Amino acid sequence: MKPLNLKEVTSYVNANVVKFHEARLRSLDSLDLRKIIMKKNPYLFKAKNIEIAGDFVKEILEAFLSSSEEKSFGDFLEGLAIFVAKRTSGGHKSSTSGIDLEFDNKSNHYLVSVKSGPNWGNSSQQDKQEQNFTRAINVSKQSPHGKNVEAVLGICYGRTKTSRVRNYLKVVGQSFWYFVSEDRNLYTEIIRPLGHKAKEYNKGFHSEKAKLINVLTREFTDEFCTKGVIDWKKVVELNSSNM
Q: What's the Cα-to-Cα distance from 194 to each of 18, 131, 188, 227, rounded to whole Å?
């Protein structure tokens, strides 16, 4: 592999983390109360004994945004891994279903599926990933590159020993970033530029989120409260009644 230029990595992170923040801000514009209620578990919030409309709105909004941000930031990390592999080994985004990255190193051709964290997918999704790897391996073996084909599940953060699972190699955290760069310190180096303009963007984001909470609280009080009390029957009917 070619040595990684950390200045290029910093420039990439600076540019693309700004896109992440901008996407967070834009996501607030597309939200409405009924959409959020229909996406989250009303029984959970009732079990937490939430009685104040503003608290309910804030909690379901935070839960909704958290899952959305995890997906968006996972896409960012996938892009970063592809960028690093491109710089070190000529890697590229794969066109094969279920595979994110392909690159060669020494005598191996790697087929990589990138996940942001260790707690990904249920058993059906893991079965599907195994099928995707099997299909991709078979196709790759027919190509003329003449290299040993290895499937890799790359997980961007976490602390687990590298192991063989099913038909692929599972590489996590520091080991994953070393795998695409051969730089043992990359996993800590990439944290440095992530704060680029974070304070500035977070200030704007939290300001807009506060406005949205106030607007949605008023809507929630009008539609789902009776004499100042949350009508949980109405909430559950919106979320779970037959279509």
A: 9, 34, 11, 47
Rounded mean pLDDT, 169-196: 92
pLDDT at 129: 94
List of residues 6+ apart from 150 with CB closer than 8 A = 108, 109, 110, 111, 169
Residue boundaries of the structural domains of the chain: 6-240
Question: Hey, what are 87's tokens?
Answer: 């710089």
Q: pLDDT tens digits for 131-181?
A: 999 999 998 888 777 789 999 999 999 999 999 988 899 999 999 999 999
CB 154 within 8 A of CB 180: yes
Tell me the residue ranges of DSSP E strands in 36-167: 92-93, 101-105, 108-115, 148-155, 163-165
Q: Name residues whose C-beta falls within 8 Å of residue 196's C-beta, 6 or more positions apart in sequence.
A: 13, 14, 17, 18
Task: Report the chain's terminal Cα–Cα distance, integer Å.
Answer: 56
In angstroms, rounded to a whole number, what is the distance separating the alpha carbons of residues 35 and 57? 12
Query: What does the CA dihedral 149, 153, 157, 160 come to, rounded to 10 degrees?
Result: -90
Model-level pTM greater than 0.90?
no
Nearest 10 degrees: Cα torsion 151, 157, 160, 166: -30
> What are the two backbone dihedrals, phi and then psi, of residue 130, each rounded to the nearest 5 degrees?
-60, -40
Both tokens of residue 22? Answer: 């901008």
pLDDT band at 203 (very low <50, low <70, confident <90, very high): confident
Residue 231 near residue 37 (C-beta atoms within 8 A): no
